[in-house]
Amino acid sequence: MKYNKLGKTAIKVSRICLGSMTWGYQNTEQDAHEQLDYAIDQGVNFIDTAEIYAVPPSEKTYGLTESYIGSYLKNHPGKRKNLIIATKIAGPGVDYIRGGSGFTPPSSIEDAVANSLKRLQIDHIDLYQLHWTHRMTPRFGILDYHHNWFSQDDKLAETLGALGKLKDKGLIREIGLSNEHPWGVMHCLMLHERDSQIPRIQSVQNVYNLVSRLADIGLSEILVREQVSLLPYSPLAGGLLSGKYQGGRQPEGARFSTWGAERMTRYINSRTDKAVNDYVELARSQNMSPVQMALSFVNDRVFVASNIIGATTMDQLKECIASEGIALSQEMLQKIETIHSKNPNPAV
User: Of 149, 270, 272, 309, which residue is most buried, by most CB within 10 angstroms?
Assistant: First the structure.
């Protein structure tokens, strides 16, 4: 396993990050612990979760994923020192989480951190991320931007200031963003430059995969020049890039066969069908797994520190982690670009 620096920090994270959002809905606590055992044995040191998990979110499963990680760490106390644990505070609009207030006022952040620490059964969080913004921004398949002059553009200073105080107390080590846009990333960096009491953001966790490469267009240069790490999620587009949904198939237990289809309509259309068919055909023509080709492409992007994978079975997990040892040839990369140029970003 190779390791990369997280932003400008001294923290080294494995190129594969173990995602956890299915733990508590599609996966049991025993499943979660089995995945953790295997991933850690393979050199994965980076675990990502969120207070709102499991997914699909519900009041019943809120916090359950963090609790599964906590019970694992309690049973394996010696492993904590070698792990980088990342979690996220929910943004606004979820009524059963702090009344839907998100991360305002600052006391909400203190409560959220305290509760995550309790569920995770740890004394500090290595990377604490804002899950989505308070601002009115395109996200989760909604593309249009309609500016709201009353949206909380200026609350980032207050939010980051509150996180800085928790960092000073040793409760969190570093700060990251999620589902954020170029303006938000640069604004946070600017706030830190203006006031050293405001902590620097070190990472952005956004969707990135072969059928949704918007980070290439609007974010990549910022990430490289400012040394902010991308932590891509959904690198297989919800499993779409595995090819398992080709021809309208609905595998039993798969995300789009159970709960995901109505939430992820951007991934199911004629353009994504065409792109997936082309990528799967390319992988198989080179005797490669479509999964490993898709993940290897993401792994090697210059702005990516760690690729967040997720699995509901051990076979899936093993295939995903094995992608870390695969390097795509220049010929393969050029063929991927040819497919992309003919049908760019069909799943945004």
Answer: 309
Q: From residue 200, give the alpha-carbon distance in Å to each of 11, 130, 282, 299.
A: 14, 13, 41, 24
Percent of the chain exceeding pLDDT 70 equals 90
Helix (H, G, I), strand (E, B) or coil at 208: coil
Q: Is 227 left (phi over 0), alpha (psi -120 to 50) or beta?
A: left
Burial of residue 168, with CB atoms counted within 10 A of its CB: 0-12 exposed, 13-18 middle, 19 or more buried = exposed
Q: Please tell me the total number of residues recorded for the chain in this structure.
A: 348
What is the radius of gyration, based on Cα positions, of the chain?
Answer: 19
Helices assigned H by DSSP within the chain: 29-41, 64-75, 106-120, 155-168, 182-194, 214-218, 220-226, 255-258, 270-285, 290-299, 314-322, 330-342
Lookup result for tokens 């207050």: 158
Does position 144 have pLDDT exceeding 70, yes or no? Answer: no
Nearest to 210 by CA among 340, 15, 300, 341: 340
Statement: residue 319 has pLDDT above 90: yes
DSSP type of residue 139: B
Q: What average pLDDT does the segment 70-83 reach?
A: 98
Residue 226 has pLDDT above 80, yes or no: yes
- CATH match of 3-205 with 3.20.20.100: yes
Query: Which candidate, 182, 247, 237, 248, places its Cα nearest to that of 210?
Result: 237
pLDDT above 60 (res 173): yes
Dihedral sign for Cα 113, 118, 123, 124, please.
negative
Peptide bond into 54 cis (omega under 30): yes
> CA 201, CA 175: separation in Å to the nearest integer?
5
Residue boundaries of the structural domains of the chain: 3-205
Pick from 59, 214, 206, 58: nearest CA to 132: 206
Active site residues: 53
Amino acid (1-letter code) at residue 310: G
